[in-house]
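Exercise (ungraded).
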Amino acid sequence: MLLGLGAAWLIMFIYVVLITLRERKLRKELDRVRRMVEHPNK
Amino acid sequence: MREKIIIGLAVFAGALLAWNMNTIFTKLPDELNQGAIYRIIYFHVPANILGMSGFGLGMLFSIGYLVTKDLRYDALAASVTEVSLVFASIGLATGSIWARIIWGVWWAWDYRLTSWLVCWLIFGGYLMLRRAVDEPNQRARFAAVVSILGSVNAYISYKSIEWWTTQHPQPVLSIRNGGGMAAGMEAPIWWNVLALACFSIILVMVRMRQESFAREIDTLRRMAHAQ
């Protein structure tokens, strides 16, 4: 039973970590592209 | 506002889950034939309910995109489907562990398990397809078609335990006229469905924000190339 419970929470935890990493990556990329559009010569 | 809704939902879902876990582990008796292991049902069934209904909801948003060509429907469909796939994965994993203990095998190729695995693979393919196609409207159109096909398969999987004889048990919940559980044992399933549904709404909201970031990045890139 604990194995099943552990598996359920592990899958959820991995997904939350992945979604958090993706959010960080997207924010960085958005900042980079915004700077690129605002200052095209840099 | 979005942050406040997310925090509010997280607090409500966390409190509900904690209270329900206390009921499940300290107040409910063991099941007559299976003993304590039957408690996996309190995660297995809610995860699969959310997985199946989420795939259906994703299909409705996909149809919404096909009718209106509004990419916000596509973003909603992608977000809901991805979160539903996580719950379907939990359903498959908990089901397999439960099967190992009760049936003595990790897996049985019966109609229910096989159709649900095929459904999981279709929606895994749906997410891979979205990464493979760059043009937003083409991606949304292809993904919508896969979502509709996958949801038909999800419905077949849902009905499979009524249509065919399977190793997987027949319906036990009272809403499907199963009647296989005592009332006190069934209620915590629905409380967990509610708590996990709140978590899934939070995840969908976060994914929607990411989809809007991705759209903005795409627009800015096009502007940068045009300069």
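Further reading is listed at the end of the chapter. For now, observe: Chain A has one helix and no strands. Chain A has one domain: 1-37.
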